[in-house]
TrEMBL record:
Residues 88-199 form the Phosphatidic acid phosphatase type 2/haloperoxidase domain. It is found in: Endoplasmic reticulum membrane; Nucleus inner membrane. Its main location: endoplasmic reticulum. The lineage of its organism: Eukaryota, Metazoa, Chordata, Craniata, Vertebrata. This is Polyisoprenoid diphosphate/phosphate phosphohydrolase PLPP6. Keywords: Endoplasmic reticulum, Hydrolase, Lipid metabolism, Membrane, Nucleus, Transmembrane, Transmembrane helix. The gene is Plpp6. Its EC number is 3.6.1.68. One of its GO terms (molecular function) is sphingosine-1-phosphate phosphatase activity. The keyword Endoplasmic reticulum applies. It catalyses: (2E,6E,10E)-geranylgeranyl phosphate + H2O = (2E,6E,10E)-geranylgeraniol + phosphate; presqualene phosphate + H2O = presqualene alcohol + phosphate; presqualene diphosphate + H2O = presqualene phosphate + phosphate + H(+); (2E)-geranyl diphosphate + H2O = (2E)-geranyl phosphate + phosphate + H(+).
Length: 215
Protein backbone atom coordinates (compact mmCIF):
# COMPACT_ATOMS: atom_id res chain seq x y z
CA UNK A 1 0.00 0.00 0.00
CA UNK A 2 1.23 3.42 -0.90
CA UNK A 3 3.92 1.95 -3.20
CA UNK A 4 4.20 2.54 -6.91
CA UNK A 5 1.65 0.79 -9.10
CA UNK A 6 2.82 -2.48 -10.65
CA UNK A 7 3.87 -2.13 -14.27
CA UNK A 8 1.52 -3.92 -16.68
CA UNK A 9 2.84 -7.13 -18.22
CA UNK A 10 3.85 -7.01 -21.88
CA UNK A 11 1.20 -8.33 -24.20
CA UNK A 12 3.21 -11.40 -25.19
CA UNK A 13 3.71 -12.31 -21.50
CA UNK A 14 -0.02 -12.04 -20.93
CA UNK A 15 -0.59 -14.41 -23.82
CA UNK A 16 1.81 -16.94 -22.31
CA UNK A 17 0.17 -16.65 -18.91
CA UNK A 18 -3.30 -17.02 -20.41
CA UNK A 19 -2.95 -19.58 -23.20
CA UNK A 20 -5.94 -20.23 -25.38
CA UNK A 21 -7.87 -23.47 -25.31
CA UNK A 22 -6.67 -24.25 -28.83
CA UNK A 23 -3.06 -23.72 -27.78
CA UNK A 24 -3.45 -26.04 -24.79
CA UNK A 25 -5.15 -28.68 -26.93
CA UNK A 26 -2.45 -28.56 -29.63
CA UNK A 27 0.34 -28.74 -27.05
CA UNK A 28 -1.35 -31.72 -25.40
CA UNK A 29 -1.82 -33.51 -28.73
CA UNK A 30 1.83 -32.86 -29.62
CA UNK A 31 2.97 -34.28 -26.28
CA UNK A 32 0.79 -37.37 -26.75
CA UNK A 33 2.09 -37.77 -30.30
CA UNK A 34 5.74 -37.64 -29.18
CA UNK A 35 5.14 -39.98 -26.24
CA UNK A 36 3.18 -42.58 -28.22
CA UNK A 37 5.58 -42.46 -31.17
CA UNK A 38 8.54 -43.15 -28.90
CA UNK A 39 6.72 -46.03 -27.23
CA UNK A 40 5.87 -47.52 -30.65
CA UNK A 41 9.43 -47.15 -31.96
CA UNK A 42 10.16 -50.76 -31.03
CA UNK A 43 12.62 -51.25 -33.92
CA UNK A 44 14.43 -47.91 -33.63
CA UNK A 45 17.70 -49.62 -32.66
CA UNK A 46 19.27 -53.02 -32.26
CA UNK A 47 18.75 -52.77 -28.51
CA UNK A 48 15.06 -51.87 -28.81
CA UNK A 49 12.25 -54.21 -27.78
CA UNK A 50 11.92 -55.61 -31.31
CA UNK A 51 15.46 -54.82 -32.43
CA UNK A 52 15.83 -58.22 -34.12
CA UNK A 53 13.07 -57.24 -36.58
CA UNK A 54 14.91 -54.08 -37.64
CA UNK A 55 16.49 -55.65 -40.80
CA UNK A 56 13.03 -56.71 -41.99
CA UNK A 57 11.66 -53.25 -41.30
CA UNK A 58 14.48 -51.74 -43.36
CA UNK A 59 13.60 -54.01 -46.29
CA UNK A 60 10.02 -52.71 -46.04
CA UNK A 61 11.48 -49.20 -45.93
CA UNK A 62 13.26 -49.76 -49.25
CA UNK A 63 10.04 -51.12 -50.79
CA UNK A 64 8.40 -47.73 -50.20
CA UNK A 65 11.37 -45.57 -51.18
CA UNK A 66 10.99 -43.19 -54.11
CA UNK A 67 14.10 -44.16 -56.08
CA UNK A 68 13.19 -47.85 -56.68
CA UNK A 69 9.70 -46.80 -57.69
CA UNK A 70 10.97 -44.14 -60.10
CA UNK A 71 13.58 -46.42 -61.67
CA UNK A 72 11.14 -49.33 -61.96
CA UNK A 73 8.44 -47.18 -63.53
CA UNK A 74 10.88 -45.59 -65.99
CA UNK A 75 12.25 -48.99 -66.97
CA UNK A 76 8.76 -50.37 -67.52
CA UNK A 77 7.90 -47.32 -69.61
CA UNK A 78 10.93 -47.86 -71.83
CA UNK A 79 10.21 -51.57 -72.24
CA UNK A 80 6.47 -51.35 -72.79
CA UNK A 81 5.10 -52.01 -76.28
CA UNK A 82 1.45 -51.34 -75.43
CA UNK A 83 -0.06 -47.88 -75.77
CA UNK A 84 -2.45 -48.51 -72.85
CA UNK A 85 0.40 -49.67 -70.61
CA UNK A 86 2.53 -46.67 -71.60
CA UNK A 87 -0.31 -44.33 -70.66
CA UNK A 88 -0.68 -45.90 -67.21
CA UNK A 89 3.08 -45.97 -66.58
CA UNK A 90 3.55 -42.38 -67.74
CA UNK A 91 0.88 -41.22 -65.32
CA UNK A 92 2.40 -43.31 -62.53
CA UNK A 93 5.73 -41.59 -63.23
CA UNK A 94 3.96 -38.22 -63.08
CA UNK A 95 2.31 -39.22 -59.79
CA UNK A 96 5.64 -40.24 -58.23
CA UNK A 97 7.34 -37.01 -59.29
CA UNK A 98 4.41 -34.96 -57.97
CA UNK A 99 4.62 -36.86 -54.69
CA UNK A 100 8.34 -36.16 -54.30
CA UNK A 101 7.86 -32.48 -55.06
CA UNK A 102 4.94 -31.96 -52.66
CA UNK A 103 6.59 -33.84 -49.79
CA UNK A 104 9.82 -31.85 -50.26
CA UNK A 105 7.90 -28.55 -50.23
CA UNK A 106 5.95 -29.39 -47.07
CA UNK A 107 9.04 -30.72 -45.29
CA UNK A 108 10.93 -27.54 -46.20
CA UNK A 109 8.12 -25.34 -44.90
CA UNK A 110 7.37 -27.20 -41.66
CA UNK A 111 10.95 -28.27 -40.81
CA UNK A 112 9.91 -30.65 -38.07
CA UNK A 113 12.97 -32.59 -36.84
CA UNK A 114 12.93 -36.36 -36.85
CA UNK A 115 12.30 -38.18 -33.56
CA UNK A 116 15.26 -38.12 -31.19
CA UNK A 117 15.34 -41.94 -31.07
CA UNK A 118 15.76 -42.22 -34.86
CA UNK A 119 19.03 -43.52 -36.30
CA UNK A 120 20.02 -41.67 -39.49
CA UNK A 121 20.83 -44.82 -41.45
CA UNK A 122 18.09 -44.45 -44.03
CA UNK A 123 18.37 -45.68 -47.61
CA UNK A 124 19.52 -42.81 -49.90
CA UNK A 125 18.58 -39.51 -48.25
CA UNK A 126 18.50 -35.95 -49.56
CA UNK A 127 18.67 -32.57 -47.85
CA UNK A 128 14.99 -32.36 -46.85
CA UNK A 129 15.06 -35.92 -45.49
CA UNK A 130 16.45 -34.61 -42.22
CA UNK A 131 12.92 -33.33 -41.58
CA UNK A 132 10.09 -35.53 -40.43
CA UNK A 133 6.74 -34.01 -41.45
CA UNK A 134 5.17 -35.52 -43.48
CA UNK A 135 6.26 -39.12 -44.06
CA UNK A 136 7.14 -39.45 -47.72
CA UNK A 137 6.85 -43.24 -47.50
CA UNK A 138 3.29 -42.98 -46.17
CA UNK A 139 2.38 -40.43 -48.82
CA UNK A 140 3.79 -42.62 -51.57
CA UNK A 141 2.15 -45.76 -50.18
CA UNK A 142 -1.31 -44.17 -50.15
CA UNK A 143 -0.83 -42.68 -53.63
CA UNK A 144 0.46 -45.91 -55.21
CA UNK A 145 -2.22 -47.96 -53.46
CA UNK A 146 -5.05 -45.85 -54.87
CA UNK A 147 -3.38 -45.78 -58.29
CA UNK A 148 -3.00 -49.57 -58.47
CA UNK A 149 -6.51 -50.28 -57.24
CA UNK A 150 -7.94 -47.92 -59.84
CA UNK A 151 -5.84 -48.67 -62.93
CA UNK A 152 -4.60 -52.26 -62.61
CA UNK A 153 -6.80 -55.30 -63.06
CA UNK A 154 -5.99 -57.27 -59.90
CA UNK A 155 -7.61 -60.28 -58.32
CA UNK A 156 -9.09 -59.76 -54.87
CA UNK A 157 -6.13 -61.35 -53.02
CA UNK A 158 -3.71 -59.03 -54.83
CA UNK A 159 -5.86 -56.01 -54.05
CA UNK A 160 -5.77 -56.97 -50.38
CA UNK A 161 -1.98 -57.35 -50.56
CA UNK A 162 -1.61 -53.87 -52.06
CA UNK A 163 -3.62 -52.34 -49.21
CA UNK A 164 -1.68 -54.36 -46.62
CA UNK A 165 1.62 -53.24 -48.17
CA UNK A 166 0.59 -49.58 -47.87
CA UNK A 167 -0.42 -50.06 -44.22
CA UNK A 168 2.74 -52.00 -43.32
CA UNK A 169 5.01 -49.42 -44.95
CA UNK A 170 3.24 -46.65 -43.02
CA UNK A 171 3.35 -48.47 -39.67
CA UNK A 172 7.01 -49.38 -40.17
CA UNK A 173 7.93 -45.67 -40.24
CA UNK A 174 6.89 -45.30 -36.60
CA UNK A 175 8.32 -48.68 -35.59
CA UNK A 176 11.71 -47.74 -37.04
CA UNK A 177 11.61 -44.42 -35.22
CA UNK A 178 11.78 -42.49 -38.49
CA UNK A 179 8.56 -40.56 -37.90
CA UNK A 180 5.99 -39.56 -35.34
CA UNK A 181 2.45 -40.81 -35.75
CA UNK A 182 1.14 -37.46 -37.00
CA UNK A 183 3.78 -37.45 -39.75
CA UNK A 184 2.45 -40.77 -41.02
CA UNK A 185 -1.23 -39.87 -40.67
CA UNK A 186 -0.78 -36.60 -42.56
CA UNK A 187 1.30 -38.43 -45.17
CA UNK A 188 -1.51 -40.90 -45.80
CA UNK A 189 -4.04 -38.08 -46.17
CA UNK A 190 -1.73 -36.16 -48.50
CA UNK A 191 -1.06 -39.22 -50.68
CA UNK A 192 -4.77 -39.97 -50.90
CA UNK A 193 -5.43 -36.39 -51.99
CA UNK A 194 -2.56 -36.33 -54.49
CA UNK A 195 -4.12 -39.21 -56.37
CA UNK A 196 -7.16 -37.04 -57.03
CA UNK A 197 -4.83 -34.43 -58.55
CA UNK A 198 -3.29 -37.12 -60.79
CA UNK A 199 -6.74 -38.22 -61.94
CA UNK A 200 -7.74 -34.62 -62.67
CA UNK A 201 -4.54 -34.00 -64.66
CA UNK A 202 -4.48 -37.44 -66.31
CA UNK A 203 -2.05 -37.48 -69.23
CA UNK A 204 -3.29 -39.03 -72.45
CA UNK A 205 -2.34 -38.91 -76.16
CA UNK A 206 -5.10 -36.32 -76.59
CA UNK A 207 -3.96 -33.72 -74.04
CA UNK A 208 -0.21 -34.47 -74.02
CA UNK A 209 0.73 -35.76 -77.49
CA UNK A 210 4.33 -34.54 -77.21
CA UNK A 211 5.01 -36.75 -74.19
CA UNK A 212 3.63 -39.85 -75.87
CA UNK A 213 5.58 -39.09 -79.03
CA UNK A 214 8.79 -39.61 -77.02
CA UNK A 215 7.92 -43.26 -76.50
Amino acid sequence: PGGPAAAPLPEEDCMRLNPSFVGIALSSLLAIDLWASKRLGVCAGEGSAWGSARPLMKVIEVSGHGIPWLLGTFYGLCQSDSSAAREVLLNLLFALLLDLMMVAVVKGLVKRPRPTHNKMDMFVTFSVDKYSFPSGHATRAALVCRFFLRHLVLAVPLRVLVVLWALIVSISRVMLGRHNMTDVLFGLVLGYALYSVVEYCWLSPLNAPALFALW
